[in-house]
Amino acid sequence: MTIPFEEIRARLLANPKVKAEYDALAPEFEISAELVKARMRAGLSQAQLAARMGTSQSTVARLESGQTLPSTKTLLRFAKATGSKIHVRLIAA
Predict the structure, then answer these.
(1) Which residues contact 76 (CB under 8 A, 6 or more apart)?
(2) How far is CA 79 from CA 12, 15, 57, 76, in A?
(3) What is the DSSP letter of 6?
(4) CA dihedral angle for residue 89, residue 72, residue 68, residue 86, rounded to 10 degrees
(5) Which residues of 28-49 are buried (b: 16+ CB within 10 A; e: fewer)?
(6) CA separation for the pair 38, 35 (Å, rounded)
(7) CA distances from 3 to 7, 10, 14, 22 (A)
(8) CA dist., res. 48 & res. 26, Å (int)
(9) Could you state, in order of their start, the residue ranges of all structural domains in the chain?
(10) 59 with 71: CB under 8 angstroms?
């Protein structure tokens, strides 16, 4: 029997400690999701994007997975390579 992911997620997030850790990682997940969207919008594979950025496909994969937080310089290179522009905003917590 297969349990749907959303059901497992709901069970895990019912634990306050797990939820707190999950919420703490939300900004990192948001950054990686935006990077993937920008690459997809540009119609590029990770390898094609890496070539435009002058880096490796594995570096792009790490950025998109959230394993590595990009520097501002890297974000600028990523944006240029995907024909995007960066928009940063801070909102009240």
Answers:
(1) 86
(2) 35, 37, 16, 5
(3) H
(4) 50
(5) eeeebebbeebbeeeebebeeb
(6) 5
(7) 7, 12, 16, 20
(8) 28
(9) 5-82
(10) no
DSSP assignment of 54-93 = TS-HHHHHHHHHTSSPPPHHHHHHHHHHHT----------
Burial status of residue 10 (CB atoms within 10 A of its CB: 0-12, 13-18, 19 or more): exposed
Other CB atoms within a 10 A radius of the CB of residue 51 amount to 15
What phi and psi, each to the nearest 5 degrees, are found at residue 26? Answer: -55, -45
- Determine the residue type at 1: M
pLDDT in tens, the chain (93 residues): 899 999 999 999 999 999 999 999 888 899 999 999 999 999 999 999 999 999 999 999 999 998 888 999 999 999 999 999 999 889 898
User: CATH topology for 5-82?
Assistant: 434 Repressor (Amino-terminal Domain) (1.10.260)
